[in-house]
Amino acid sequence: MEHPTHFHLWILLVALLAMPVASAHEVYVLNSTIVQEDLGNASTMVFQETFNNPSQAIIIWGFIAAILIGTIIVIYLTHTKWALHLEKNFDFIRPYAALIIRLGLAISLIFGALNHNLYGPEIVIANSFAGASHGIFLIPYGDVITVLEFAVGIFILFGLFTRLAGLAGGIIYLFAATHLGLYALNYINYFGETLVIIIEGATLFSIDTLLRKKTRHPLKEHVSKLHDWLMNFGERYTFPIVRISFGIALLYAAISLKFLHSLLTFDVVRDYHLGWGLNPATFTVLFGIAELVMALFILLGILLREATAATTIALVSSILFFGEDVWPHILLLALCIGIFMHGEDTFCLTDWLYKKERDAVDVVEGKN
C-alpha cells in the first residue's frame, strides 16, 4: 500500500499549494480607474505593514517554511523509482502537447480580435470598430492590427502557412511592446509560442502537412531539408522556449502586480472579502509568495507537472469565483495543460538533478 500513499500525498500537496494561488488577474477584475491609480502608485507598503507586525510576520514565515518543506517532500516522492515508472504512463499524450498549445494560441488571438483586444481586456486595439476606449492601454493602427490578429489566429488554428502566421504574430507582439513597455512581459508567453510556431510550424491536424505531402515543385527538396532541420532543432528547444517564456510572464506578473504594485492585489482581497479570517494585507503577501513560487518552479523546471497542475487549478478557480472572461485565460490554460502533457524537458532543473535515476529506469524498462 506504499505506492497509493505516495500518489495521494502528491495530489494533496498540489491541491494545498494551489489554494493560496487561486487569485484573479487584478487588471481583469478591478475597475479600470482603480487599476490605473494602483499601477501609477508603485508601493510595497502592504508588505512593509505585514512584516512590521510580529504576529502577521510569523504567519508569513510559517507559510514560507511550509512551502520549502513541502517542496522537498514532493521532490523526493516524485523521483522515487516507482514515481518515475508512473511518469512513463504520460508518454502517450506527450506528442499532442504542442497541438494543445497551438490551438490555445489560435483561439486566444481570434477571440481577442473579435473583442477588439490584444492578449487581455486591458489592452484595447484602437480602431473604427471598437468605439470608445474602455481599457488601460491603447494600441494604435487598430484596423490593421485587428485584421492581422484575426488572420494569424485563423491560419494557426487550421495550420495553413503556419510559420508565416507565427512570424506575423511575433511582429504584432514586438509592435505592441513598443507601446506597452515592460508591461508587455505579462504576455511574453505569446511571443514565446510564436517563436515555437516559426520553428516547428504545425504538424498534427494541419493543412500544411497535407500540402507538404501532395505538393510538387522544384524547391521541394530544399524546403524539406529546411523543415527537417527546424524540426530537429525544435525537438530539443521548443518546449524550453515555451516553458521559460511562460515562467517569465508569471514571474513578472508576480513581481510587478503582487510586490511592486501590491495595492492591486490588496484591493481585490478587500473588495471580494477574501482572506478567510486573515488580515487582508497578510493574505495579499501570501498570494504574492505563492504566485512567485509557482512562477519560479515553471521557469526553472522544478516539479513541472505539479506546478502546472496547481496553476491550472488556480486559473479555473479564478474564472469561476470572479466570473472573469474565459478567452484571456485560454492560452494560459493551454500552456499549463500542454506543459503538463509534455513533462520535463532537457533543460529542467529537476531533470538535470535526477538524470541518473531516470536513466536507470529507462535501462530497466528497456530490459523488460
Could you write a compact summary of the structure shown?
The chain has helices spanning 2-18, 26-29, 32-39, 45-51, 54-78, 81-87, 97-114, 142-158, 162-180, 188-200, 207-214, 220-260, 262-271, 280-300, 304-322, 330-342, 349-353, 355-367, and strands at 117-118, 120-125, 137-139.
Ordered list of secondary-structure elements with their pairings:
Blueprint: H1 2-18, H2 26-29, H3 32-39, H4 45-51, H5 54-78, H6 81-87, H7 97-114, E1 117-118, E2 120-125, E3 137-139, H8 142-158, H9 162-180, H10 188-200, H11 207-214, H12 220-260, H13 262-271, H14 280-300, H15 304-322, H16 330-342, H17 349-353, H18 355-367
Parallel strand pairs: 2-3
Antiparallel strand pairs: 1-2
Helix pairs in contact: 1-5, 1-15, 4-14, 5-14, 7-8, 7-16, 8-9, 9-10, 10-12, 12-13, 12-14, 12-16, 13-14, 14-15, 15-16
Given as residue ranges, the uncertain stretches (5+ residues, pLDDT < 50) are: 1-24
Which outline best applies? flat
Structural class: mainly alpha
How large is the radius of gyration? 22 Å
Largest sheet: 3 strands, mixed
Number of strands: 3
Helical amount: over 70%
H/E topology pattern: HHHHHHHEEEHHHHHHHHHHH
What's the N-to-C terminus distance? 24 Å
- Mean pLDDT figure: 80
Percent of sequence in beta strands: under 5%
Strand order of the largest sheet: 1-2-3
Number of helices: 18
Number of discrete domains: 1
Verbal overview:
- With 368 residues, the protein is mainly α.
- It has one domain (2-209, 236-363).
- The chain is 72% helix and 3% strand.
- It contains 18 helices and 3 strands.
- The chain has a 3-stranded mixed sheet.
- Strand 1 (117-118) and strand 2 form a beta hairpin.
- Helix 9 runs antiparallel to helix 10, helix 10 (188-200) packs antiparallel against helix 12 (220-260) and helix 12 (220-260) crosses helix 16.
- The longest helix has 41 residues, at 220-260.
- It is flat.
- The two termini are 24 Å apart.
- Mean pLDDT is 80; it is low at 1-24.
